[in-house]
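Justification of computing resources. Each target in the renewal requires a structure prediction run like the one illustrated here; the chain below, 188 residues long, is used simply to show the kind of job we budget for.
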Amino acid sequence: MTKKFGIDIDGTLTCPTTFIPYINESFNMNITLDDMKEYDLCPLIGITNEQFWEWMDEKEPIIYKESPLAKNAKMVIDEWKHTHELIFISARRNHLFDVTEKWFQQNLISYNEIDLIGSHNKLAAVKKHEIDIFFEDKHDNACDISEEFDIPVILFNTPYNQDPIPKKVIRVNDWLEAKQWVNHWYSK
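Resulting structure tokens:
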């Protein structure tokens, strides 16, 4: 039976270190992933939310065009593309659809749909697509989706998502662990 997989893009499909070189260059910093203790980057960088979005307006297309894939993500997605619907749901703003779609094509990432919702609140998109399982790196998204829809959410472990998690949120270190958990879940 085909399942609908909802998959976040940034920090999940792409490597969670993607933004770091751009932050370091733009703000003359030398941060690493371990320095990112919260999802909101403004306190770490020392800028306001408004300044952050001005920076994003300039850098976002470049960052998304050059984003490296998370290790083993393509291999796992390639295995799932024949048996499940792959719906990528991202907080990216919709004006970035062309650069996003081109990145998927250049990286040969299969998908059934790409939904750029322009917000971190993914509940409406999960409901609209009738998602069976979700893959995420943002802690509160993972918890909200899991609790609202009573579905498993795979949370990719990062320094910025270490708060406690509810029972249906499953913390994994990489795509191979995610695949192993999903294969066990799917076989039940």
